[in-house]
Design goal:
Layout: E1 4-6, E2 19-25, H1 28-31, H2 38-45, E3 49-55, E4 68-69, E5 79-80, H3 82-95, E6 100-110, H4 113-120, E7 124-128, E8 145-148, H5 158-169, E9 202-203, E10 206-207, H6 217-235, H7 237-240, H8 247-268
Parallel strand pairs: 2-3, 2-7, 6-7, 6-8
Antiparallel strand pairs: 1-3, 4-5, 9-10
Helix pairs in contact: 4-5, 6-8
């Protein structure tokens, strides 16, 4: 199967930061529909990103297009051959040099927002999406890094690759409608994001907080920061240990903790 290259509207690309993604997979049709909708489709149409989806079977080297074989030493499942991966990588390198060659693997470094920001500064990312029991271990020496999207096992690397693609592409200038919208995202600031509200003003006896209706922007910013700290303390307290908190943050956290102690005391009465 030929590669599927999604690149339209290239006249726009000179106006913005440009990123190229190359994805090798055994199932290109799992990936291409994801790229035909929403903001990724618009980014492709405007020439902000190029996504080149290629079939690993093109490098099988046999009439049956078999890319896998049984593992040495026995065991369940099949393993994707190292020579197939090597040919795939060499094909891309003959055209241009990827900044990163990324193997999606449960054994890889856990993908984070910090890594997303690092990768978003690159120009060309190449992904190897595995299936079955994964790639021959010798593939690890052919890549620049291994990444995992979490401590669980997927059926293949396609969803993981798309996760990284989305997380990095949305950081590129012009991809999001509001250039500032990602700056307050969860994890970008080191905290979980503050809660957001819109219409209706009241739903099932729960109203939008009065502070958000006050029009006092300085107080709203303080409230949002406190709520971000509150959410992080309640849901992901380990994140706070990594942060260098300001005096105001410490003060807000102290107020949160004092309020929690008060609420717990009221419940016992």
């Amino acid at each position: 199967m030929p590669s599927v290259k999604l690149l339209l509207g290239t006249r726009y690309s000179a106006l913005f930061t440009f990123m190229k993604y190359t994805l090798y997979t055994l199932f290109p049709n799992l990936i291409t529909p994801w790229l035909s909708e929403a903001l990724l489709a618009k980014a492709i149409e405007r020439g902000l990103i190029e996504v080149d989806v290629r079939d690993l079977r093109n490098h099988a080297g046999n009439k049956h297009n078999r890319v896998d074989d049984t593992p040495y030493g026995g065991g369940a499942g099949m393993v994707i051959r190292v020579d197939v991966a090597a040919k795939a990588i060499a094909e891309v390198q003959a055209e241009s040099t990827p900044d990163e060659i990324i193997l999606l693997s449960p054994a890889g470094e856990t993908f984070t927002q910090k890594i997303a920001e690092e990768l978003a500064a690159k120009e060309h990312l190449l992904f190897l999406c595995g299936r079955y029991e994964g790639f021959d271990a010798r593939v690890e020496k052919l890549v620049t890094r291994e990444l995992s999207v979490g401590d669980y096992v997927l059926m293949g690397g396609e969803i993981a690759a798309l996760t990284i693609l989305e997380a990095t592409a949305r950081l590129l200038p012009g991809v999001l409608g509001d250039a500032k919208s990602h700056q307050q995202d969860s994890f970008t600031t080191g905290l979980l994001d503050y809660p957001e509200y819109t219409r209706p003003l009241e739903f099932e006896d729960e109203k939008v907080p009065d502070i958000l209706l006050s029009g006092h922007h300085a107080n709203i910013e303080i409230w949002r920061r406190q709520e971000a700290l509150r959410r992080t303390l309640e849901r992901r307290p380990e994140l706070l240990a990594r942060l260098e908190l300001s005096k105001q943050d410490k003060k807000l956290l102290q107020e949160i903790r004092e309020q929690r102690v008060k609420d717990e005391g009221d419940q016992k009465l």
